Amino acid sequence: MSKFQSLRGMNDCLPTDTPVWQYLESTVSRLFARYGYREIRVPLVESTDLFKRSIGEVTDIVEKEMYTFKDLSDESITLRPEGTACVVRACQQHGLLHNQTQKVWYHGPMFRYEKPQKGRQRQFHQMGVEIFGFQGPDIDAEIIMMTARLWKELGLSDVVTLQLNSLGTLEARNAYKAKLVEFLNGIRDQLDEDSQRRIDSNPLRVLDSKDKKTQALLADAPDLLDHLDEESAEHFAQLRALLDAAGIHYQVNSRLVRGLDYYGKTVFEWVTEALGAQGAVCAGGRYDGLVQQLGGRATPGVGFAMGEERLVLLLQELNLVPDSVNQQVDVFIAYELECLQGAMLLAENLREQLGDLRIQTHFGGGSFKSQMKKADKSGAAVALLIGETEQANSSVTVKWLREDKPQQTVATSELLKLLQSL
Fold it and tell me: Are strands 45-47 and 359-361 parallel, antiparallel or unpaired?
C-alpha cells in the first residue's frame, strides 16, 4: 500500500469514472449556452470576510465548515465553500454590474468540512448560474425551466421533485421572524439542541430542521407565506403562473428557507429520494441585496447551483449513462512488428482527416491474438489489422468488434469513407 493516501472526504476521480463526469458537464455547459449564459472562472481561495459577509456569520458553513487559514502575509483566507459570493465579487471588481445585465455560469470544486457521506464530500463539485440586473419573476421562471429541461435531457425527470417557496423582502422576513421566535420560545425545551441554539441566531433555519420531533412541533408554527409583503406575494404568484403555463410541476414548501443568509423572495430546490434519504441535487433563489451587502450598488440577483457528485451517482445508479460515454476508443490498430511505422502513419493520417475519431494504436509487440484481446477490451468498434501483405498492397483488414459483419480487406484510399460511418 502507498505510504500516502488522499485526505478524508477528498476523493480521486479515476479514468473509469471521468467519462460520466465529462458527459454531465458537457451536457450542462451546452444547455447553459443555449440559454445565453457565458462561463466565468473564479479563484479557489478568497478573503474569509467575503464569505462571512455574504453567507452570514451565524450559519453552519461559517461557524463549522469553512477551511480557513492564515497565509504568509497573515491574511485570513478561505477555500471557497460556495460559488455565488465569488462570482458577485468578480463581477463587481471588474465592472460587469454597472448599468448592464449579466448571465454567467461556473463550475469547479468547493470545500466544506463536514462528515463525508454518499454524494457529499469535503471537496465537492458544483455547476451553477448567476444572473444580475433582472428584477421580475420571469428570470426566476427561466432558470427553473432550464433545470427542468436538463433533467429531461439526462433522463432524470421522474426522480426529481421541485420544491418552491418565497422568503419575502428583508423587512417582511424580520417581522415574521419576531412572530416565529415568540412561537419557538414557547416550545424551546422540546426542540433539538441545534434548533434551540438557532432561535437566537438564525431562527428561520429551525424551519429546515432535519430532526423529526422538531418538525412535528413546527406543525403549529406561523406560516411564512401568510406573512409575505404585497410585492413578494405578487412576485411569487406570477412565478407560479409562469411555471403552471410551462407545465412545470412543483410543491410549495413554506418551510424551505435555504442555508445561506443572502436569499430573499424566490427560493427553490430540486430534491430526489433515489439515493436514499431525500436530498437536494439543485438549489437556488433570489439574492437581491447581496451585491449591495458586499459594497456594490443595489443590483437584483438570482441563481442556483447543482451538486455534481449526486448527479453522477443518480446517472450511474439508475443506468442512465449512454453506452457511448464509456466507450473511449473507436478504432484500434494492430500490426505485425515490421509494420509499426506504417501503422503509426496511418493513425496520424486518420486523426488528421477525421478529427473526432478516437484511435488507439497498439504498442509493445505481441501476436495478433494478444493484440485482439486488447482491442476488444478497449471498447473499440473496429480493429484495423496491418500485416506484411496489407502493407505491400496498401490495404488494411477491417475487423468489426461490436457488430456481426464479415471481416474485409479494403484499400487504404477507401478506408476514410468506411470509418466516417462510425
Answer: unpaired
pLDDT at 259: 65
Ranges of residues in the chain whose predicted pLDDT is under 50: none
Half-sphere exposure of 201 (CA within 13 A, CB side): 14
Give the per-residue SS3 of the chain: CCCCCCCCCCCCCCCCCHHHHHHHHHHHHHHHHHCCCEECCCCCEEEHHHHHHHHCCCCHHHHHHCEEEECCCCCEEEECCCCHHHHHHHHHHCCCCCCCCEEEEEEEEEECCCCCECCECCEEEEEEEEEECCCCHHHHHHHHHHHHHHHHHHCCHHHCEEEEEECCCHHHHHHHHHHHHHHHHHCHHHCCHHHHHHHHHCHHHHHHCCCHHHHHHHHHCCCHHHHCCHHHHHHHHHHHHHHHHCCCCCEECCCCCCCCCCCCCEEEEEEECCCCCCEEEEEEEECCCHHHHCCCCCCCEEEEEEEHHHHHHHHHHCCCCCHHHHCCCCEEEEECHHHHHHHHHHHHHHHHHCCCCCEEECCCCCCHHHHHHHHHHHCCCEEEEECHHHHHCCEEEEEECCCCCCCEEEEHHHHHHHHCCC
pLDDT tens, position by position, 68-77:
999 999 999 9
How much is the pLDDT for 329? 92
